[in-house]
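Annex B. Sample input.
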Amino acid sequence: MFSSVDPYKNQHYADLKSACIKSKTLFEDPEFPATNASLFYRRPPPGLVEWKRPGISNEPHLFVEGISSHDLNQGVVGNCWFVAACSCLALKPHLWKKVIPDSDEQEWDPKHPENYAGIFHFQFWVFGQWVDVVVDDRLPTINGELIYCHSKFNNEFWSALLEKAYAKLSGCYESLEGGNTGDAVVDFSGAVSEVINLEEEAYYKDQKKQDQLFEDLLKVYDRGGIISCSIKASPHEIEMRMANGLVKGHAYSITAVKRVRLGHGLLAYFKNETIPLIRMRNPWGKTEWKGAWSDSSEEWTKVGDTERGNLGITVEDDGEFWMSFSDWCKNFTDTDVCRLINTALISIHKTWHESMHFGSWTKHAEPLFNRCGGCANHKQTFLQNPQYLFDVTKEVDEVLISLQQRDMKIHRQIGQGENLTIGFSVFKVELNRKYRLHDILTQQCVETSTYINARTVFKRCMLPMGRYIIIPTTFKPQILGEYMIRVFTDVDSGCRELTEDKPRAGCCASFLGYPQAVSHVYVHGAEGLQNQDSSGGADPYVIISCEGHSVQSTVQRDTLEPEFKTSGIFYRKKPRKPICVEVWNRNAVKDQFMGQVVLSGLVKDTTEPQRLQLRKQGRQMADEMPGTISLRIITSNQLTDM
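Annex B, continued. Sample output.
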């Protein structure tokens, strides 16, 4: 996940710091100056702003008593989402040490003040690439107080400087108003973000779904993932305090997911009774949940002293509190789950193979070259979108797909900072498809993501063995934009973009021949096959062959009425040469022929589904064999028809 780092705006931290020390000057960042343009584009802060260096306090430090999720509090800008992400970051040393590189070297050194140059740098994962962002140490204040993100210690500055670097990436501080915690976590880590709508899925009503969600979140948390949550709010309810102590339209960081043991002493261990609890933090550093399992609630009397000590229960209004998982599902409406996907070659945990591609939705007058066709509602243009092919080579495999558009916050200053509404569909296609899909014939849409104006859309799929195409789209056609698509599978999926519409006419085509027609063959299944073993069954599979090329289905175990659901596409140089569909039985010694059908595959032939009698091979091919096969074949002289 960690790769090379690019300097943002071509500013090299080491060179700039060295030059400042040599000239005995403090760094002033020309790319993010101490002016109003760096503060706001529309609404100024509430007071006279003065930019000050951390000399405003005695003995400034990056970290005071280490880094903690309790270090930081939200300022006047409505960026609780960013502060919540920072709280999560503080809990993960392997992440914050990447985001805040060389923290010891960057720390103030009172013994060598001559080495201080007023320059810091932070690293963010921006659209698939780690970027190093340099800032000076001038921070905006009103009446001597920091007005944005700040620590509970007045001489600790890591959070304020990190926020300044993130504001620089976004254009100005005001551009950080209103955002998504999951997006910030992705920018801190390169994680994969999934948004779960707790309200829509109604987890609070379904105990089985609730238990499964808890297990999923527990696994994410234990493996270093980052989770946050919020409660939906209408515009006039943003950051409105509710009677139960929770705040609407406000991001909370989840700081623990635990099964807490109930009972006291040895009895607790023998009974092994637990309750699922979740701990979270309000970025305000105050205002907590008042219900069951809150700081001083009577429920804690059910938990032994040792267990309470392990959980670090504190009875103070510090913004951190526990809830039962069922109450959490009832009260919160959305959660952002950021998984740190393990792509290491050697690991004790599950590893994934990642395939990452960058692309754009672009406009072209010629339909074959247009790449902004909109979602599947727009049937005439949908397949003009970019297409990515991948294979599932296991019997069934979990596939993670993340579609991310380029961050738009930097464009808020010119009134164009809104995300596009994006999503994607996944189609199961022919086993031998190599070229772009031009028509949906028998190909099945197996997954469709939600379409939402979020930076990232994510989908987890369980897919059977086969070949698939992902089609990322905007909701409406003719909308332009950039995207990044990431596909995670258990083994290499061979994921690649399909750019060719049909086979190329090479220099040898004049004597080797070039396809004159294209045929799509779909075999649904067979019925009434002949018994092949002593148990009265068979293990059939189907082979579709044309001009020396073939596709083969998976073996269907112990059945005489198999469903193959297998298809192939054939670019035919000799359209009068027939297509053969054979059914075979898998046998440990030698596979047994169970029958075939021979198809002329002419353009004039029926394109409707057919049920055909199986026949013998060779000179006896006129003779029938037990069973029928259900299939559909479509042929066209236009190679880009399918």
